[in-house]
Amino acid sequence: MDAARIKAWQVKATPWDAGDVQPAFRELLDERWDEVGVSLDALKDGKALVAGCGRGCDAAFIAAHGIDTLGIDLSPTAIDVAKKHLASQPGAPSNIAFQQADFFAFPLPNDERFSLAFDYTFFCALPPEPFRKQWGARYAEVIRPGGLLICLAYPLDGNREGGPPYSVSEEAYDAVLSDHFEKIYSKHPSQMAEDRPVGRDKMLVYRRQ
Ligand SMILES: C[S@@+](CC[C@H](N)C(=O)[O-])C[C@H]1O[C@@H](n2cnc3c(N)ncnc32)[C@H](O)[C@@H]1O
């Protein structure tokens, strides 16, 4: 799986790369955040993590909201693309870093756990066995108590065989997070990417207990 992803970046076979912030994530932070019931300011004394960040647009969007952000990706090419893309954006935030790292093994910067993490198309890129349980356990390890994990769940398309992307369900996220996280928000976005049928994405927010 890892080698395939790294190769995908090298040969520019990255169909998931929207080249912009996910509209559903923009909507949540800019229009619906009141519904989550947690102050964004309360997360600013910590850092945000975007694992499997790809081009890094979602990471930069978080940073632009005043939260220092780290985007990591296993692929050095992805990190190179993310750095170049950021540098090409007028008014890009400066409170952001991109680093080539393995989500499952990277050392926490300064031994500090994150106050926020955003996960989009990372969960569905991982073969369910054995990675989903490890994914949930790792987020529990790297997010501090009270910190948030925002998941844009995709693709919610039942029990389709094979992947990536592997089919996901809200229950699949709950199953690997509920030991350490409380789900505080669950709603379909109103703005869908043009190529996404309504109902294939859902925004889920979990709070680390
Ligand atoms: C489907 S892509 C999604 C990229 C990005 N989130 C986006 O929406 O454009 C999944 C990304 O996860 C990265 N990845 C795979 N395994 C990883 C790991 N163990 N640690 C960090 N990144 C990983 C891949 O290199 C790839 O860029």
UniProtKB/TrEMBL annotation:
Keyword Lipid metabolism: no
PROSITE patterns membership: SAM_MT_TPMT
Gene Ontology biological process terms from the UniProt entry: methylation
One GO MF term attached to the UniProt entry: S-adenosylmethionine-dependent methyltransferase activity
Keyword S-adenosyl-L-methionine: yes
Record key words, sorted: Methyltransferase, Phosphoprotein, S-adenosyl-L-methionine, Transferase
Gene3D superfamilies, alphabetized: Vaccinia Virus protein VP39
Lineage top rank: taxon: Eukaryota
InterPro entries linked to this entry: SAM-dependent_MTases_sf, TPMT
PANTHER family hit by this protein: CYSTEINE SULFINATE DESULFINASE_CYSTEINE DESULFURASE AND RELATED ENZYMES, PTHR32183
Protein name listed in UniProt: Thiol methyltransferase 1
